[in-house]
Amino acid sequence: MPFAAAITAGGQSRRFGSDKAAARLEGRTLLEHVAASLAGCPLRLLIAPPGRYALPGWQGVPDTRPGEGPLAALEAALQAAQAEVGPGWLAFAGVDMPRLTPRYWETLARARTPDALAVLALDAEGRPQPLAALYHTDLLPHVTARLEAGERRLRAAARPESTVVVPPHVLEAVSPDALRNVNTPADLAALGKAEQ
Ligand SMILES: Nc1nc2c(ncn2[C@@H]2O[C@H](COP(=O)(O)OP(=O)(O)OP(=O)(O)O)[C@@H](O)[C@H]2O)c(=O)[nH]1
Ligand SMILES: [Mg+2]
């Protein structure tokens, strides 16, 4: 996978009740599951408070606006990626999507067009998923401007005119559970049961 990767892991896991990045599923933490899906990326960034996690092969990057949420974390990730490897694409993921796979990311990568600056998958209800998406570093000025204007929703990062979406039937064929996410202990229990 010829693009940089960032996992955003600076949340408080309030709904989960304890650090969900460290919660276990099938012998690995949720954070390790997500990291495995992106292990083939040449630059791997973990956007989190310094010292909170040790993830071999991943470079810790502190939030530039700590506690301001995933849109601010995307800004930090795009800045770090641009500084490390120059302009290009970044795979951006939360800690709580343990069914992401390399094929999911490859499918998004294949959907890129010359004019696109973001690639988002649509869930089964047709909603774009900004937390397991590709963003180009050229979005950085837009992301910073939105943050400066008070915006905090991650879905504000992608601009409609430069966003490509991947329809559900395409993902269903390659990585059907990729968008399953864990906000509560019940979500985690349901994921574990789904395989049995
Ligand atoms: N770096 C960074 N990541 C964040 C921040 N806030 C949330 N995240 C991450 O964004 C992703 C999606 O956020 P949520 O699912 O809401 O996770 P959360 O905020 O820890 O959980 P709740 O407290 O229940 O909302 C997770 O991977 C979080 O770790 C932040 O301020 N900085
Ligand atoms: Mg949250």
What's the layout of helices and strands?
Elements: E1 4-8, E2 24-25, E3 28-29, H1 30-37, E4 44-47, E5 59-61, H2 70-85, E6 89-94, H3 102-110, E7 118-122, E8 128-136, H4 140-148, E9 163-166, H5 168-174, H6 185-194
Parallel strand pairs: 1-4, 1-6, 4-5, 7-9
Antiparallel strand pairs: 2-3, 6-8, 7-8
Bound molecules: guanosine-5'-triphosphate and magnesium ion.
Binding site for GTP: 8-10, 20, 63, 96
Binding site for Mg(2+): 96
Domain MobA-like NTP transferase: 5-156
Brief overview:
With 196 residues, this protein is of the alpha/beta class. It contains six helices and nine strands, in the order E-E-E-H-E-E-H-E-H-E-E-H-E-H-H.
Structure characterization notes:
By secondary structure, the chain is of the alpha/beta class. It has a single domain (4-194), classed as Alpha-Beta Complex (Spore Coat Polysaccharide Biosynthesis Protein SpsA, Chain A). Helix content is 30%, strand content 20%. It has six helices and nine strands; from the N terminus they run βββαββαβαββαβαα. The strands form two sheets. It has a seven-stranded mixed sheet with strand order 5-4-1-6-8-7-9, with helices on both faces. Strands 2-3 form a two-stranded antiparallel sheet. A hairpin with a 2-residue loop joins strand 2 (24-25) and strand 3 (28-29). The termini are far apart. The structure holds guanosine-5'-triphosphate and magnesium ion (MG). One of its GO terms (molecular function) is nucleotidyltransferase activity. Belongs to the MobA family.
